[in-house]
Design a protein that fits this description.
Helix content is 56%, strand content 0%. It is mainly alpha-helical.
């Protein structure tokens, strides 16, 4: 819609006219989910922000406090290190996450306590080697 509201016309009547015109053209006739109720969780209590949460889930986003987000990132880093193709890649992954953990350790926590300490790079590399030899 690029049309501007004409001067002297109230916003409400102008908007209503735009909607009536779109309905008359059939712009709303074939929208996905037309005529169906909005899906909702029957067992859950009403949450005013249900649509925000559904949008975040659909987009694959999350809003976590930084410490919890770093915990998740640290877990993912260990999984990535276990699947790394080389010892050099394992070291890089673990060293990168350790930098982030150390940074968070020395800042006042903006959320729940981090509860992590940097990983022992040599220990992670040793575990990686053991899994590779066991898989061979």
């Amino acid at each position: 819609m690029t049309e501007r509201k004409p001067p002297g016309v109230s916003f409400e009547s102008w908007t209503d006219k735009q909607i009536r015109d779109a309905e008359a053209r059939g712009d709303f006739a074939h929208l996905p989910g037309a005529g169906k109720p909005l899906p909702r969780d029957v067992e859950a209590t009403y949450d005013e922000q249900w649509w925000i949460k559904r949008k975040l889930a659909r987009e694959g986003l999350s809003v976590l406090p930084p410490t919890l987000a770093l915990r998740k990132e640290a877990e993912d880093a260990l999984v990535a290190a276990a699947k790394a193709p080389s010892e050099r890649a394992v070291r890089k992954i673990v060293e990168d996450i350790n930098v982030k953990i150390r940074d968070m350790m020395f800042k006042p926590p903006p959320g729940p306590p981090l509860g992590l300490k940097p990983y022992d790079v040599e220990d992670v590399v040793r575990q990686w080697r053991e899994r590779r030899t066991a898989a061979s």
